[in-house]
Design brief:
The protein is mainly alpha-helical. It has helices at 2-16, 20-33, 38-50, 54-70, 75-78, 83-97, 100-113, 118-130, 134-147, 154-162. α1 (2-16) runs antiparallel to α2 and α2 (20-33) packs antiparallel against α3 (38-50). The longest helix has 17 residues, at 54-70. The N and C termini lie far apart (57 Å).
Length: 165
């Protein structure tokens, strides 16, 4: 609807001005008008993420994921979002919270859908190193090196992996 489009426009302007509280209000208004507006939920979660409101971000990404899984074949709901993108964002927030196991679980889901994404491989590498899982880290480093050989972090990761007990 036009009203929802206008609210998205106001939201975008407010974010540019870093007026996060009012931007959040616009998104909350959108989801109150349209409970299936995945884009609004995803943007709301990203807004919380931006402000380091981790538990709100996690909760909202989890809801967005549930919505996306229910409507994955409906392009009007999915728009330009992908389920793996939501899994990735959720994993990132869980890493920030310090819940490495949950983060690993979600990034694995993202990689199942898009196994060659350098961003996803990057995150699972960091997580496996944080978990001191040398085997897992080695597997994903090899994968990343084949997908993205010019990545300048490869040698850093190799050193980190070698220093794991």
């Amino acid at each position: 609807t036009k009203m929802i489009k206008d609210l998205f426009v106001s939201y975008a302007d407010l974010v540019k001005k870093e007026n996060f509280n009012e931007a959040e209000e616009k998104l909350v208004e959108i989801v109150s008008l349209d409970q299936k507006n995945l884009s609004a939920f995803f943007k709301l979660a990203s807004l919380y993420d931006e402000q380091k409101k981790w538990s709100e971000a996690r909760q909202t990404y989890e809801y967005a994921l549930k919505l996306a899984r229910q409507h994955k074949d409906d392009e009007t709901i999915m728009e330009e979002l992908t389920i793996q993108e939501i899994y990735f964002s959720l994993a990132w927030v869980e890493k920030e919270i310090g819940d490495i196991d949950a983060a690993l679980e979600n990034i694995r889901e993202a990689l199942e859908l898009e196994g060659n994404s350098p961003r996803f491989l990057d995150l699972i590498l960091d997580l496996s190193i944080m978990r001191k899982d040398k085997e897992l880290a080695s597997v994903y480093l090899e994968k990343l090196a084949s997908v993205n050989p010019e990545n300048n972090k490869i040698s850093d990761w190799q050193e980190k992996i070698n220093s794991l007990e």
